[in-house]
Write a structure and sequence with these properties.
Layout (H helix, E strand, L loop, with lengths): L9 E5 L4 H12 L3 E5 L9 H10 L5 E4 L17 H29 L2 E6 L2 H4 L7 H21 L4 E8 L6 H9 L1 H10 L9 H12 L10 E4 L7
Parallel strand pairs: 1-2, 1-3, 3-4, 4-5, 5-6
Helix pairs in contact: 1-8, 2-3, 3-5
Length: about 230
């Protein structure tokens, strides 16, 4: 994909305050797209009115990357100690927000007969949450199921929907704190389980998105790509 491949295309990337979302936005801009990066301080992706108002204000988008989410400051604890509010905070930020953003952009993509949607899930959605957060694993698995369903529904309109499942990436304060909490032995165990023997970088995830966005990937939809150094070999 060259630097002008996406010229004339409008992209929305959620969760761009730092890390992976910012790297994805930068990558799309480098390849010519007009990028609208948003974070929770700009648009609350769990608020239907805010999402619809924003999308309408820019007359829709050709590309949507759903990267907003995270653990919302939570740490792992026993299921019986998890409150409704804690569970839904994570579920809404990761899964419900994805649904609301996709719902808002789809009418515009249908009118144009072309669209690219990429949802950023997690290795936790394909396996388990290393932080032990039940809602996070559930929401990320839900994103993968939602991706498949939307690929089936939207394919006839020229819209592809795919998913990237990152491995361990030191991309923000939360992931850095998580890594540090494991200590030398825990860190060594994680590294030894990654065939490439390194943690991921935000740019690695952006490159996975780049594959799905490329016009040459027009016949690829409903897929989940693990970008994790080979950690999830299945």
């Amino acid at each position: 994909m060259n630097e002008t491949t996406l010229a004339g295309k409008v992209a929305i990337v959620t969760g761009t305050a730092q890390g992976i979302g910012r790297a994805i936005a930068d990558m799309l801009a480098t390849h010519g797209a007009a990028v609208h990066g948003i974070d929770k301080d700009d648009v609350d992706v769990t608020n239907s009115s805010e999402v619809q108002s924003f999308v309408s204000s820019i007359n829709g988008a050709d590309i949507l990357v759903n990267c907003a989410g995270g653990v919302r400051g939570q740490i792992g604890k026993a299921l019986e100690s998890v409150s409704d509010e804690e569970y839904y905070a994570v579920l809404d930020a990761n899964l419900t927000g994805t649904f609301k953003c996709v719902r808002a952009v789809v009418p515009f993509m249908k009118q144009r007969g072309w669209g690219r949607i990429v949802n950023i899930s997690s290795g936790a959605g394909r396996s388990i949450s290393l932080t032990g957060i039940q809602a996070y694993a559930s929401a990320k698995a839900g994103q993968i199921g939602f991706t498949r369903q939307m690929a089936y529904e939207l394919g006839p309109f020229g819209i592809t929907v795919n998913c990237v499942a990152p491995g361990f990436v030191l991309s923000n304060p939360t992931s850095i704190a998580q890594w540090e909490s494991y200590g030398p032995d825990g860190q060594a165990a994680i590294m030894n389980a990654i065939p490439t023997r390194r943690l991921g970088q935000a740019s690695d995830i952006a490159n996975g998105v780049r594959f799905f966005i490329d016009p040459a990937s027009d016949w690829v939809t409903g897929q989940t790509l693990s970008v994790d150094g080979g950690h999830a070999l299945f």
